[in-house]
Amino acid sequence: MKKRFFTLIELLVVIAIIAILASMLMPAVSKARAKAEEISCVNNMKGMGTILMIYTSNHKSWLPPMDYADSVGGPRFINGMSWIESLMGCSRADYISNKSGINPTMDARSLFCPMATESNDWAKMSYGWNATLCGRVGEPQYYSFCRITTLTQPSKKIGITEAALYTNASGVPLATKDGQWRFKGDMTTMNDLGWGHPVGRHDNRANTVHLDGHVEAYTIPMPTNPHAAHPFNDAAYVKAD
Fold it and tell me: What is the pTM of this model?
């Protein structure tokens, strides 16, 4: 019996069909990957929310300070990364090298959203603390400490959000998909380069940790004006009562 081989045309048709199927599958694969990264980010923030609840429970309901001024002594991170020290229990050296911290609930890798560029610069971590709720120890202009028990709706208050540092109002972070460790709830402009702004890494959505520990995502419709989006422009969400 004579063997039958594919003709060139038949081979090209098969290749074309495979290419079409691959092009149809790629968007689905990309969406699945993005969803997995979003879930990983949410898990990071849920861990932070849990540790935040433990911290306030152990400190008579006081929220952790944003950081310490350089003039203030006592144990703290280099450049005063005290809210991370308090919640994560890991040092700057730990998260540069992705080592685990002393807190068993999370490790240093949890400081970075999978959609953000990991950095060995402590100021470029993915998540920012709301300094309007609890500010810096040792500098009166940042003094805004409060207890959860004094808030009428802690479940509405945003303590941590995905944040990024911007160079201007272009809507493009300083480094692609990079971050910033602090933000203020009363921001009205992007000209202050010392502060981060909410960033929508997940299809224009920013994950947030509220002061009751739950995580919620909010849409940022205008990347060029992220601090003006709800609820980041609402005092009920970002300022103490």
Answer: 0.80
